Amino acid sequence: MSSAPTASNTTDNSQQRPPRQRNGPPPPRRQGRNPPPQTRARYQQTNQGLQEKKKPVFVKVDQLKPGTSGHTLTVKVVDQNPVTQKPGAASSHLRPVRIAECLVGDETASILFTARNDQVDLMKPGTTVNLRNAKIDMFKGSMRLAVDKWGRIEVTEPADITVKEDNNLSLVEYELVNVE
C-alpha cells in the first residue's frame, strides 16, 4: 500500500506567512557597564555644573551609636596600647598587620579607637586628630571607632580638650536582639 500525499502533510508555500513588519523604531538596547558615548557625554555635562561640596558635620563622641558610619569628629588621643599578634594568626604570604587600641575622646565622652598599620604612627598620646568618615565597629559586644580605607585621619594643631574618661562608650556592652 502506497500512501498518497494528502493536503494535511504537504507544505504549500502559498500558506506561509510573510515576515512580520515592525511598527516604529527598534526597542532600546540594554546598556551594560559602559554607556554609549553620547550618553556618557550627557552625564559629564550634568556633572560639570558648579556643585558645592557639603561641609562636614562634626559630631561629639557621646552621639555615636552602634552600627553607624560616616562620622566626622575631632578627638584627643589619651592612651595607646599595641595589640600583639598571635604567631600563625596571619598568613606567611601577607604582610604583618600592626594594630593598636587607642583611647580617644572629647569633652563629652571617650571611646576606643582601633588603629591599623600607618594609623598607629599618627595616634600618639596627646595629639589632636580629625577623623573623617569614621565608623563604629562592634567587637565582643562593645563599640570601637575605626577609620577604613575610605576615611582619613588628620593630625591637627593641639586643642585644649579635656577628655571625659569616666564616660567610656566602649565599656557599655550591647546585645543584638532579634525583633519579630
Name its key features:
Single-stranded DNA binding protein Ssb-like OB fold domain-containing protein; OB_Ssb-like; five-stranded mixed beta barrel; 8% helix; mainly beta; single chain; 180 residues; 6 strands
The largest sheet is: 5 strands, mixed, barrel
| Radius of gyration over all CA atoms, rounded | 32 Å
State the helicity in percent bands.
under 10%
What is the approximate shape?
elongated
Mean pLDDT: 79
Q: Number of helical runs?
A: 2
Strand-pairing-aware structural class: mainly beta
- Strand order in space, largest sheet: 1-2-3-5-4
Uncertain residue segments:
none
Q: Terminal Cα separation, in Å?
A: 77 Å
By DSSP, the count of extended strands is: 6
Domain Single-stranded DNA binding protein Ssb-like OB fold: 64-155
Region (Disordered): 1-55
Protein name: Single-stranded DNA binding protein Ssb-like OB fold domain-containing protein
InterPro entries: NA-bd_OB-fold, OB_Ssb-like
How are the SSEs placed, and which strands pair?
Blueprint: H1 37-47, E1 69-83, E2 99-105, E3 110-116, H2 119-122, E4 128-139, E5 142-146, E6 152-156
Parallel strand pairs: 3-5
Antiparallel strand pairs: 1-2, 1-4, 2-3, 4-5, 4-6
InterPro entries: NA-bd_OB-fold, OB_Ssb-like
Biased composition (Polar residues): 1-14, 41-50
Biased composition (Pro residues): 24-38
What would you note in describing this structure?
The model has no long low-confidence stretch (mean pLDDT 79). 15% of the residues are buried. By secondary structure, this protein is mainly β. A hairpin with a 2-residue loop joins strand 4 (128-139) and strand 5. The protein has a five-stranded mixed barrel. It has helices at 37-47, 119-122; strands at residues 69-83, 99-105, 110-116, 128-139, 142-146, 152-156.
